[in-house]
Amino acid sequence: MRQSPRFLMLQRIRFLTLFFLARRERYMKNKILLIILVFSVALNIAAGVSLCYHWLRAKRVFGPPPFWEGISKCEKLPPHERDEREWIHNLRQEALPGVMALRDSLELQREKLIRLLQSPEPDSVEIEQTYNRMTELRTAIERKIFEAIKRKTRDLPPEARARILNNLGRRLGGRAWGHKMKERRER
Fold first, then answer.
1. Which of 151, 143, 153 is nearest to 99 (CA)?
2. Total structural domains in the chain?
């Protein structure tokens, strides 16, 4: 069946219109994909630069230490208090050799307590005695550290010394500090 030239022309126009529309749609899809690709490449480059920057800071090549180091309460303190806390930490480390024997006996008591608790027939009196001994050892360790720091702070001005000892007392959980306060009240 022969078709009229007019029908063929309309068919060709329809075909060409659909073809160009399809091409345009494909072009638009490609354009969106290209935008996504450029955006993701830019993000990857930014992440790589950031990683290199923080790695170089971690290696102390330049700048302050990286953000993941030392974001603590200590960082937010005023400089004099920050120095005092670092100083206390260093003094506690210095006092450790004298405390090591006490720590070893505390560890032995802890192991003994675990054994007693795991035994088939635990002896409550012995468990209580072991626990009390552990508490005494902990207090003795803290008191020893406290005394060492107290000796080292004798040369400081009174307000700085009081501030250091108060900070230390709070950090020791109040056992050694509470003992000293009780002595002071008795006087």
1. 143
2. 2
